Amino acid sequence: MVKKHGKKQRAKKKAQRTGAAYSSAAAGTTHTHTPLPDLSALPLVPHGSWRVLDLDLAARLVAACRAGCQPCQQTLIPKVVKENRATLAALAGAVYGAVPTVGFAASDTTRQWAPLARTAMQAGSGDEAFAAVDAMDEAAAAALLDDALDHWAMGDGPILAEAVRKVAEGASRRGTTDPMDAFRAAGIDVFTLDDLDLGDVDAYHLAENYGVFVGQTTTPDGQPLPMLTLYPESEGAGIEDLEARTDWDHWGLHGMPDVDLSWRLRATIADRSLSGLVHVDDDGQDDIELWRAAQTVSLPADWWALLDRAQHVLVVGPVKEADHQALQAAGDAGELLAVIARVSFH
After folding, report:
1. Residue 341 pairs with which residues in a beta bridge?
2. Residue 198: CB partners within 8 Å, gap ≥ 6?
3. pLDDT given for residue 14 in this prediction
4. Nearest CA among 239, 219, 248, 79 for reference residue 151
């Protein structure tokens, strides 16, 4: 049920982006899309040695996508696919090099290329990622660009730019001499957690974490869906933290976000309780833990029954406090992120 609805939502988003009913296009009028987005962070994306980006072309394409202008997209997309593969690699790399997952709706081409983009961002070298883009046939290259533009079209540009800058800065720091080596060279003893041999360290409390409360919503096709809302439990928890650690959609309490099966809400059958909200990597290991139950609390029978039927849950947040009015206020202010996660029963 949720998967089918997700397809409808993605189709609706794409229809809005491609602007099939754009009136000025039907009238044959000339138009531009202003203001153009700031893509000054794009050259920080590794896109192949000595390759020159066409930032003007990229900005005009992103602006056309945000305006839903199909005629401009039909003109500009082939130019990027056929003539500007480095620009394509940079636009896609800004998305898939800086986020941990590609999302449920991504094409096979994007799923196969995304690990190269993440490696390129971490290493600061995009030759291998660019070579893969350069070798794609036009259909595959267009699919990759289309997936990336879905992110750019949603107004995620500032978020993507900030993520690119953070990852690029991290790669730059990793490429320099370890500052701890300078202390050691000066005769100062430096110890790490590994040196101290403290055993397994629980990383959960080293990162920001959240509390949760349960609720219920209705999908646009009238089906009930369980909902889990996050609120901050540590000082740095909030929307900036979630933006940095997830690739969840910005959500305004209407429609449905994408499904991402890498996000798991863990539920315990024996006592009808929830134990945690995590993201798992390609090997099935937890790599992000946003919430962990401090104690066992049995859930209402009707909510548990809905969770069991749906097998998925809408996860949304952050709100300032555990209150449904706070949820409405955050939605009205445009300060919510959301994803549809899989329920993992055990």
Report:
1. 313
2. none
3. 45
4. 248
Contact at 8 Å (CB) between 42 and 57?
Answer: no
Rounded Cα gap, residues 276 and 267, in angstroms: 8
Token pair 């000025």 is found at 24
* Residue 104 pLDDT > 90: no
Q: Is 142 helix (H, G, I), strand (E, B) or coil?
A: helix
Give me the pLDDT at residue 219, please. 87
- More confident position, 50 or 175: 50
Instruction: Provide the CA 327 distance to its chain's centre, in angstroms.
Output: 21
**The CA-based dihedral angle spanning residues 224, 15, 143, 133, taken in that order and rounded to the nearest 10 degrees:** -110
Contact 334, 158 (CB under 8 A): no
pLDDT tens-place string over residues 169-199: 665 554 444 444 444 444 444 444 445 454 5
Burial class of residue 280 (count of CB atoms within 10 Å of its CB; 0-12, 13-18, 19+): middle
**Residues 6 or more apart in contact with residue 8 via CB below 8 angstroms:** 220, 221
- The amino acid at residue 62 is V
Residue 159 has pLDDT above 60, yes or no: yes
Residue in the block written with tokens 């066992």: 296
What is the pairing mode between strands 312-317 and 249-250?
Answer: unpaired
Q: Is the pLDDT reported for residue 1 higher than 90?
A: no
Cα–Cα distance measured from residue 337 to residue 69, given in angstroms and rounded to the nearest whole number: 26
Locate 306 and state its tokens.
């809905």
What is the predicted pLDDT for the residue at 137?
A: 95
Q: How far is CA 185 from CA 57, 178, 182, 188, 201, in A?
A: 49, 11, 5, 7, 28
pTM surpassing 0.85?
A: no
118-130 pLDDT per residue, tens = 888 888 788 899 9
SS3 172: helix
Comparing CA positions, the residue from 266, 272, 322, 341 lying closest to residue 301 is 272
> φ and ψ at 275, to 5 degrees?
-115, -20
